[in-house]
Design brief:
ten-stranded mixed beta sheet, six-stranded antiparallel beta sheet, Alpha-Beta Plaits, 4 domains, EAL_sf, 676 residues, Beta-Lactamase, Rossmann fold, flat
Length: 676
């Protein structure tokens, strides 16, 4: 029988299994059995030595050994003993055809137990007990590591120079302070002062939440940075506070110094993290490393401040547990609300998959004992590096770089984008009245509908390169844009383009983090060009994405007919864009001789041919004639690549292979970008 409390506890955490077997059916039965009993399972099936050596370095609950041509049970046990978790239990799956050998293995080697999948009840009972035993060992090792870390940290603190500014706090009251603190604040009698009144932090709520959390982090050193409004302060703001608790009593130690970082909140990781992260690096088959910084979003602080001490402690413990579960223990907790870690990357696809997976942790709902819920969002920072770091200073630089390159989750993007849309509205923008009527081409009056963020949909789609050399080329547009059935005013087209540019720059910034060769073609109207507002707005939002640091990553796409109709061919903006490393594209390009002057004057890098392949017969043109025109243009304008658009299903896409044109575009791939 299984203790039901143990089984319930198993249901609260994913089970991580390595199954070494050449028997796919048996592997499937194991997963089905666990899922039938309402367990979430993360499992891999392998049967070779190299894969096992690579995978075993992650965190697992059990290893199940069945039968493998390239891996024996004694090798498996030796590899486990040399891994990060040498006590990891290994269970043998019984094979009916080699029962005698199986009994010999059990008697000679350190195998935890044997399992027979055909005896379902016994199999499940033994498996759950083994997992529970494994997790008890994991918890023991975790506590031991933390205890050793806090002992090292306390010993280090005791060895620090006696002239470092330090004070001791009990229940928010200063009970002791050395002379250095008194000199810094030009005060002699500070014993008995409330810490808040003494430090006078400018952002009171942030400090209260951070210090409250730090006071409960018994096994961690926490770094807090504040701007102090104390009139007698002799140090320069911001101040760096190093906070840790005493193992023997309720004292909270606070060391005060000038911040060494460039901005509040960019403190380097704790020194004790260096050895742990350094030891986690491996060089085998690794092309890159990814350093992650993870911080609690400030939106959770108001709810945290409403909790009492016990509730805050429960919240922090549950939060840490969620982070450990998601990252399989690969992140190190620097403070109650900050983590960091290094992930090895074997390929660009591996990198992309790992970064994409972070969005699954965009927010978590933390529930504490009394039923209170706190929705918690996170701020991710990322930076890549090629070689293992060899000093604390190198790690600090990487950590600061990660903090400076934040990866917004979809949730935070949507929230921020809603604010951005509001900020982008012109101050004098008014809802269009019934008097604002335009006429369509057929002479029918049409009411001009105001554009709102609810009506606007932004999406991006991939441009396919037949040569497979430009794999990360995307076009970004909107439903109210290229194919809009509406007639829109100049003010509205400006507003739409501002929103699209802002969102495109944010999206491009994230893509380039994982794929440095990414290029975005951004569809725009010509209104900003007509009003001479394009360049000023690009400069204004360059803080979102530094296009100067990524030449040719941005291409601005305009309607061929709009440019010609508004006589914008000779506008100086085109040369200025080229000078800034921003390319130009033309859509709806008609291959007529009298229009070729646009290519000569504007020097576009892309031209979308104004033709739909599925309807080419109705135009009286054959594929051969289309090819002749294309060949002529490609010969005359080798600097311009032509795109065959409107391939709206896979049949059109297949037919496009009969046309000698490099780039293909259609709605077979679409991804919406949240804007509100």
């Amino acid at each position: 029988m299984i203790n039901r409390s143990i089984e319930k506890n198993m249901n609260q955490k994913k089970i991580h299994l390595i199954v070494i077997d050449d028997h796919q059916t048996r592997y499937n039965k194991i997963l089905e059995l666990l899922k039938e009993n309402k367990h979430e399972v993360v499992a891999i099936l392998l049967d070779d030595l190299e894969s096992f050596q690579k995978r075993i370095q992650s965190e697992w609950d059990l290893v199940l050994f069945g039968r493998a041509y390239d891996l024996k049970i004694d090798q498996t046990l030796q590899i486990i003993q040399k891994s990060n978790f040498p006590e990891l239990p290994c269970l043998v799956l019984e094979n009916p055809d080699d029962k005698n050998e199986h009994q010999h293995v059990l008697s000679q080697l350190d195998v935890f137990d044997s399992l027979n999948i055909e005896k379902t009840s016994s199999f499940y009972t033994k498996l759950i007990r083994a997992i529970h035993f494994s997790r008890v060992l994991q918890e023991k090792n975790t506590l031991s590591d933390k205890f050793n870390a806090i002992n090292n940290r306390v010993n280090t603190a005791n060895e620090e120079q006696s002239d470092q500014a330090s004070l001791i706090v009990q229940e928010g009251i200063i009970v002791d302070a050395n002379q250095t603190v008194k000199d810094i604040f030009n005060m002699e009698d500070i014993d008995g002062f409330p810490l808040l009144d003494f430090l006078q932090p400018r952002d009171l709520d942030h400090f209260k939440a951070a210090f409250k959390a730090a006071s409960l982090a018994n096994l961690e050193t926490t770094y807090i940075e504040i701007e102090s409004d104390h009139e007698n302060l002799s140090l320069k703001n911001p101040l760096s506070l190093k906070v840790f608790s005493d193992l023997d009593n309720d004292d909270i130690h606070v060391h005060i110094s000038e911040s060494q970082s460039d901005a509040v909140g960019n403190q380097p990781p704790a020194v004790c993290a260096y050895e742990t992260l350094k030891n986690s690096l491996t060089t085998e088959n690794i092309k890159k490393y990814l350093l992650i910084s993870l911080d609690l979003d400030a939106s959770a602080y108001p709810d945290i401040l409403k909790l009492d001490l016990l509730e805050t402690d429960q919240y922090i413990r549950e939060l840490s547990k969620q982070i450990d579960l998601f990252f399989s223990g690969m992140l190190i907790q620097l403070s109650p609300c900050a983590w960091t870690g290094v992930i090895a990357i074997e390929s660009s696809d591996d990198l992309k998959a790992k970064v994409s997976s972070l969005d699954q942790l965009k927010s978590v709902d933390i529930t504490i004992a009394n039923g209170k819920h706190i929705n918690t969002q996170f701020i991710f920072g990322l930076t890549e590096f090629d070689q293992p770091f060899n000093s604390q200073e190198e790690l600090d630089v990487l950590y600061l770089q990660a903090k400076a390159h934040q990866l917004e989750s979809n949730t935070s993007q949507a929230t921020q984008s809603k604010k951005d849309v509001e900020l982008l509205l012109p101050e004098d923008y008014e809802t269009i009245s019934s008097a604002d009527v335009q006429y369509t081409a057929d002479g029918l009056a049409k009411q001009q509908a105001p554009v709102t963020s609810d009506a606007l949909e932004i999406y991006y789609q991939q441009i396919y390169d037949k040569e497979d050399t430009q794999l990360n080329l995307y076009e970004l547009s909107s439903n109210l844009h290229v194919q809009s059935p509406q007639v829109i005013s100049a003010d509205e087209s400006v507003k739409i383009d501002q929103i699209i540019l802002e969102k495109a720059f944010k999206e491009l910034r994230e893509h380039i983090t994982t794929s440095p060769d990414t290029k975005f073609i951004i569809s725009l109207h010509t209104t900003l060009v007509q009003q001479n507002g394009l360049l000023p707005y690009l400069i204004q939002i360059s803080k979102v994405f530094n296009y100067a640091a990524h030449p040719h990553a941005v291409t601005l796409e305009f309607d061929f007919n709009e440019i010609d109709a508004h006589q914008l061919v000779e506008h100086p903006v085109w040369q200025e864009l080229h000078a800034k490393g921003i390319d130009i594209a033309l859509r709806k390009f008609s291959m007529h001789e009298n229009r070729s002057h646009l290519i000569e004057s504007m020097n576009p890098v892309f031209c979308y041919i104004d033709i739909k392949l599925a309807e080419i017969a109705a135009t009286g043109m054959t594929l051969d004639q289309l090819q002749e025109q294309l060949d002529e243009y490609k010969e005359r304008y080798p600097q311009t690549a032509f795109i065959l658009p409107k391939l709206d299903d896979m049949n059109d896409f297949a037919d496009a292979w009969n046309v000698d044109i490099r780039y293909l575009q259609g709605s077979y791939f679409h991804k919406k970008i949240p804007i509100a």
